[in-house]
Amino acid sequence: xxxxxxxxxxxxxxxxxxxxxxxxxxxxxxxxxSSLLCIIAxxxxxxxxxxxxxxxxxxxxxxxxxxxxLDAIGFAFGAVFFSIAFIGMAxxxxxxxxxxxxxxxxxxxxxxLFTVSARQETSWVRFFSNGFEFIQxxxxxxxxxxxxxxxxxxxxxxxxxxxxxxxxxxxxxxxSAVLLNGAETTTTLVSSARTAPLSPFRPNWCRxxxxx
Length: 212
Fold this sequence. Notes:
- The chain is an alpha+beta fold and 212 residues long.
- It has helices at residues 3-28, 32-48, 67-91, 94-102, 104-107, 109-121, 160-168; strands spanning 124-127, 131-136, 139-144, 148-157, 178-179, 185-193, 204-206.
- A four-stranded mixed β-sheet has the order 4-6-7-5, with helices on one face. A three-stranded antiparallel β-sheet has the order 1-2-3.
């Protein structure tokens, strides 16, 4: 994961921490004003941190739902369930404390959604006269056309959840990239490089880029 992807995660994790601090602190020791300031500071950090600079002409993967919706759901789940878990484990007893502990399970949805958002914001592909370049999670891989062994056209099929996963998370390894459009059936180009350091390099992207 590159620096830009880490910054995108920080954009979300730090505000979520401030929101939880405002809620939990308001329950135990903070004033209402202090809690509101924490939440306002969280919103300010989310909006103020610099966003990745996507070069003109780049093709980005499709995200369903959009990044802002994913972030909103992540903040809602994280702020509510992390706060309940921390308050319950610190102040409640018996079965109520156990139920509060179980709230950590739905709260874990927030980091997953934030990872999806960070991937969407820091992943794209660019084409040049002599090759193409994949940026995924802020990490860059450049492929020269002369280094390609072959290019195949394939019909990529996946179930609904698998298609969503590939269009959002994509591939986590440094030797492959998936920029699919989220459809269950997608026409893709699959390239293999002849050079040893990238083999087996199999980046996949939409054949019709207007649909990416």
